[in-house]
Amino acid sequence: MNAMDTILVVNAGSSSVKFQDFETDGKSSLKRIIKGQVDGIGARPHLRAKAADDTVLIDESYRSDVVPDVASAIRTAGAWLRTEQRLNLIAVGHRVVHGGPEFSQPVLVDAEIVDKLERYVPLAPLHQPNNLAPIRALLTHNPNLPQVACFDTAFHRGHSAAADHFAIPQRFYKEGVRRYGFHGLSYEFISRRMQRVFPQEANSRAIVAHLGSGASMCALSNGRSVESTMGFTALDGLPMGTRPGQIDPGVVLFLISERGMNAKDLLRFLYNDCGLKGLSGISNDVRVLEASKEAGAALALEYFVYRVGLCAGMLAAALGGLDTFVFTAGIGENSPTMRARIAEKLTWLGAELDPAANAASAAIISRPSSRVKLLVIPTDEELMIAEHTLAVVTAGKRKSERDVRVEANAR
Question: Do 322 and 404 belong to one domain?
């Protein structure tokens, strides 16, 4: 039995590595066959994976010294895929949160490009180092395996100068201090999905709300990003599970001057102690907060809904009106209650929710009379990464074949 050609998609965090494997014919076909993760890295490492039909393929724990870091987690998962599943990895696609001002599309990675991406670690300190760790590991241990970096910032790179700038001296913009926007792989997937499933809405004035532990919103005009709630870092915009969202810079100055916080303290505070967790004093999980009767939980949820409503008005202004509003990601796809509360904030824009359709999590949850169509579209960042990876590798293969022909003809 020959090994199956596949593309591996990797999304690495500080203590876990999520991965999905897609069977491919090497041209255009992609079929998801495995979804798994290694978590508890360095403490209680655990590899678990399921097939597309949810059959458990592996559920195994390891000693901490066997899987002490992200690099060893990648090697462990890769060895299992090759030996037990008989998969032949033809390429690996990576989610990389920050592409900075230089990278506006997926790119085939080498050591020089990884060095460039290291420059953006200060802009995404909790994400970028972990995104790059498995790339470096594979470059060391399997240098001939093609790797493609796919950026969360790339989809927003077409913004106007007015949308892209902060009101600070221009020299900082030239140094890369600008509004990037994030969750671009999710928004790109939704945009493409709408072209296939809702073609009329795909070319309308649309807001996509990626509402999860990380949350943001994006204004789409004819399927292209024109504005985003996130800016220079993934701290901006909507309140999130543990991040504050929009905050007066004076608060940060106050924490430095009056509370004695340094850069390290602020990093931990803004990324880990704020958002729904900080406001509620209970949890960063909307499901926990919805089930709670504590006043802090109610306040956190109300604040989240309120800020989504405010940002919807801002994005509608950027679009010059609103025709479509899309809910996606963990909260957007799975919480009818939160969708209903947010939809109520959109009534002034012409949105009318259909309660029965919303309760059933239908694809269309607005009434036929609604001026703004309300949609629920599951996102799939991993498939988006796999598609980009296949396209980059295929283009590279075609270029190599052309170069060989040109060289042969030259002889």
Answer: no
Q: How confident is the model at residue 406 (pLDDT cuts 50, 70, 90)?
A: very low
299: tokens are 């306040």
The SS3 assignment for 257 reads helix
Residue 40 shares a structural domain with residue 95: yes
Tokens 């592996």, residue located: 58
Say if 166 falls within a structural domain: no
- Domain match, 124 and 219 both: no
Phi, psi of 387 (to 5 degrees): -65, -45
pLDDT of residue 411: 55
- Which pairs from 78-85 meet CB under 8 Å and 24+ separation? 78/8, 78/142, 80/47, 80/49, 81/6, 81/8, 81/21, 81/34, 82/3, 84/57, 84/58, 85/4, 85/21, 85/34, 85/57
173 lies in some domain? no
Domain that holds residue 293: 199-379
405: pLDDT strictly greater than 60: no
Q: Which residues are catalytic?
A: 152
- Contact predicate 181/218, CB 8 Å: yes
Q: Could you tell me the pTM of the whole model? A: 0.90
Q: What distance in Å separates the CA atoms of residue 248 and residue 282, rounded to the nearest whole number? A: 24
**Based on the domain organization, do 207 and 271 belong to the same domain?**
yes
> Quick one: angle between helices 263-272 and 249-257, nearest 10?
130
CA nearest to 327, candidates 372, 386, 285: 372
Torsion angle of alpha carbons 154, 245, 205, 159, nearest 10°?
A: -40
Q: Is 65 exposed, middle or buried (0-12, 13-18, 19+ CB in 10 A)?
A: exposed
* Strand, helix or coil for residue 65: coil
Domain count, the chain: 2
The answer on 238 and 212 residing in a single domain is yes
Contact by Cβ (8 Å): 277, 284: yes
Q: In what order do the strands lie in the sheet with 107-108?
A: 56-61, 46-51, 30-39, 17-24, 4-12, 87-96, 147-151, 107-108
